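Task: fold both queries, return tokens.
Query 1:
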Amino acid sequence: MSKKVSIGNVIIGGGERVAVQSMATFKISDTARAIDECQRLKSLGLDIMRFSVTDELDAKAFGIVKKGAGVPLVADIHFDYKLALASIDGGADKIRINPGNIGGEQNVKAVADALKANKIPVRVGSNTGSIEKEFLRKYGKNEISLGESALKNVAILEKHGVDNIVISVKASDVSLMVKAYEYIAKKTDYPLHLGVTEAGTEYSGVVKNSIGIGALLLKGIGDTLRVSLSADTAREVIAAREILSAVNLIDDKVKIIACPTCGRCEWDCMNFAKKVEDYTQNIKKPLKIAVMGCVVNGPGEAADADLGIAGGKDECVIFVKGKIVKKVKKDQVEKVFFGEIDRCLQ
């Protein structure tokens, strides 16, 4: 089991629930927008928010944003160790750095001392674009070079007394990403931050992240995650929650069972399923809802659903745990069924 690390008021590792992260696409120095974004994503299930830090204004903005964000904030820094120090002073709850690109030994020591003094964690790691040359020469581009490169950066911080560490070993290749996390999970007990880097646009990116992150979570590997997408950050959070729900790591989300339909379907099952999904998107309760194409198979195939609906030629049937409880005319389906959902939530 991985060790526990506290990021603000969120604990990862040690068997705690897997935390959902995302990263803003704009500068944190736009403080009003940053607060709104954090609140928007928190309402969808976000636990931790990360911002790039490119100048002093960004570093100083953490204190302002923290007052209204409602989630812990991570400062993402590359190349300039002074920005890491300024972000820590500014109130960041966690730092993401690469010790190898912030200068010499004294710079690393300065950041390490600040981390220890403020008792905040740091994420380090590697991805396929930042593997140390020595490991590329020795192993080639594979899970070993990716993992050992991350561990080298961990060792640099450990040398200066830092052990409040989270590790990532991301790759855009799903197979390599899975192998790298499996490799490093055997080498360390630090919490692991999962993700497929540069996964792509929403559709392909969700597929890649679901396969990679899901495969690892099913093996008990991973303590926090980010679903990286070239899309609205809300889609990252929603996808992350869906992954966690699919592998049964959260039970506060509505699960939708939806029939793919066939020639027996005589109502707009697909469109109705989407309406149900939208209606229940922000509900945090372990409720299983089925939207089925026909009465022939509907109640039977979805007998474990808390609430379900199946269509017919002129009417739909509503069922609970596989038992039909009422029949509804098609023009009343949405009103009646959504009312049944509300009743289940009471």
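Query 1 returned. Query 2:
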Amino acid sequence: MKIIVGLGNPGSKYAPTRHNIGFMVLDKWAHLHGIDIHKAQFQSLVGELRLGTEKIILVKPMTFMNLSGVAVREVMDFYKLPLEDLMVVVDDVEIELGMLRIRKNANKGTHNGLRSIFQHLHTDDYPKMKLGVGKFMRDRDLADFVLSRPSKEEDPIIDDLIDRAIAALEVYCTEGIDLAMNKYNGKPE
């Protein structure tokens, strides 16, 4: 069993923003498999996906980004799985647009959602998939940037990134994190 948490903010106002790419990945993945992520549980919306014999719990915290750790703690306490069976999908403004970076235990960095998870799990030692949604320029306000919609020129890059994230998650769930990292880390050629 795996738990895949996509980070984002609830509500249509935030749906198309850079910060919600975790939600976008889970929504598209669920749609491709003909399932819904709609069950209210763990202060989240939850869906269940099966890949072969692997049961995968898809989790979209409804606590808003800065309190994501509350929901993640609840789901981890309920299922009592080891941390290596948790994958958090999150936007990253420190890496290049279109970059996909899977790490077994990357630190939280400056991301408020990951900081919240750290506060509630008391560790960074779990897999993360960081998705480059555009490199943040220091002369801008960070909140304005992550809560902005990608430009029309960036849309195809984001769409491709979402598709590669889904493919990487399927490999992670069925064949392991090492193969997913080897096959999908980086940018498309």
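Both queries returned. Flag for query 2: The two ends are 32 Å apart (CA to CA).
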